[in-house]
Amino acid sequence: MNGVTGHLARFAEAMRQHGIRVGLSDEIDAATALPLVDVLDRAEVRSGLRIAFKVPHEAWTIFDRLFDEQWGGATEVPVPPAANPRERRGALQWRWDGTRVRLEAQLVQPTDGEVPGYSPEQLLRRKPFDRISEAELKAIERLLARLARRLATRRSRRLVPTSGRGLVDLRRSFRRAVGSQGDFLRLARRARLVEEPRLVMLFDTSGSMDPYTRFHLAFAFALRRAVRRVEIFAFNTSLTRVSRDIAPAQILRSLDVLASSVPDWSGGTRIGQCLAEFVSTYPELLARDTTVAIVSDGLDLGGNPSLLTAAMRALHERVRTVVWLNPLLGDARYEPTAAGMRAALPYVDCFAPGHDLESLERLTRMVN
């Protein structure tokens, strides 16, 4: 018996041999639960299987030991190196090696004439925005749109009742059985909830951000199309709310409209003044379930550091998470020595680069 079902059956048998009561229905629940968790996160796989198999608390120690024996005990998922230099890693999948289950990468043999290495998509994900060529624009915009859809459909860790597939909810199943004289006519189930994030994005459109502005806003436009609760602002020497002025499906046209309608586009910047205006003018957007993402190089030329400090402190106190994406942070030599950046950093929950697609992917993991 091969595949994930076979792995789960062997794991269940090992638990039975060590005194943990596991039935066929529990194995079915585990097979249903495994696709619902992040298989790259061993802790999440462990927790998901422990719940699906309904392991009692007093047996957790035995379960954890068996899990490490059967599913690999390394902290990180081991991926074997390619035996042939022309072989490349492909999709990840669970494999049984005769002793335990491991998550391994399939080895893909390139066809004749194909150059081994990263796929074009992988290269684009790590290519700095200021080095993207005109020929690559459409491809990178498609990747940005895909990233936005992934954020829109990301499941939270919270389980809610569902009428479809999901983990068996024993408590609700028993309650239902009471009304049918003890017959389990239908098992109640729970699944991870798809929650739309609440996100406010403030983009620096000053001259120093020109190489990145198009890509940041393309990502924002795609988010706006996929997620309802996203607000977008542009700032430089003044603040402009642009959420309702963009056409998400028409990136170039929207950029042209913004460039002509946003005052001082590609000019100077006063970050402190703009953030202070945002805090005072839009208090309804500041809530404990909101993530505020500021995308800027932090060069607050002619600005007031104390004003920026006060605005950042207010943001930090009133929202869930403050993220600052700085494209300059993509350079290992960069140090946040500018006065504006130094003033903001004490109130930033996550300070990360924003110079390529991979850095924007990290933003999606900070939301929810």
Describe, in plain words, how this protein is organized in 3D:
The structure is a single chain. By secondary structure, this protein is an alpha/beta fold. It folds into three domains: 3-71; 165-194, no CATH class; 198-366, von Willebrand factor, type A domain (Rossmann fold). It has helices at residues 3-17, 24-33, 42-52, 60-71, 120-126, 137-152, 170-178, 210-226, 251-261, 271-281, 305-318, 339-344, 357-366; strands at 88-96, 101-108, 155-162, 167-168, 189-194, 198-204, 230-235, 239-241, 290-295, 321-326, 350-353. The strands form three sheets. A six-stranded mixed beta sheet has the order 8-7-6-9-10-11. It has a three-stranded antiparallel beta sheet with strand order 3-5-4. The chain has a two-stranded antiparallel ribbon with strand order 1-2. Strand 9, helix 11 (305-318) and strand 10 (321-326) form a beta-alpha-beta unit. Helix 6 crosses helix 8 (210-226), helix 6 runs parallel beside helix 13 and helix 10 (271-281) packs parallel to helix 11. It is elongated and about 70 Å long. The relative contact order is 0.09.
Offer a few descriptive terms:
single chain, alpha/beta, Rossmann fold, 3 domains, three-stranded antiparallel β-sheet, elongated
Query: How many structural domains does the protein architecture include?
Result: 3
Helix content: 40-55%
Q: Could you say what the CATH architecture of the largest domain is?
A: 3-Layer(aba) Sandwich
Quick one: how many beta strands?
A: 11
The CATH homologous superfamily of the largest domain corresponds to von Willebrand factor, type A domain
Q: Assembly state here?
A: single chain
How much strand?
Answer: 15-25%
What's the helix-strand series? HHHHEEHHEEHEEHEEHHEHEHEH
Question: Which fold does the CATH topology of the largest domain refer to?
Answer: Rossmann fold
Termini gap: 38 Å
Assigned CATH class of the largest domain: Alpha Beta
How large is the radius of gyration? 25 Å
Shape: elongated
- Helical element count? 13
Give the overall average pLDDT: 76
Poorly predicted runs of 5 or more residues: 73-94, 105-118
Spatial sequence of strands, sheet with the most strands: 8-7-6-9-10-11
Largest sheet: 6 strands, mixed
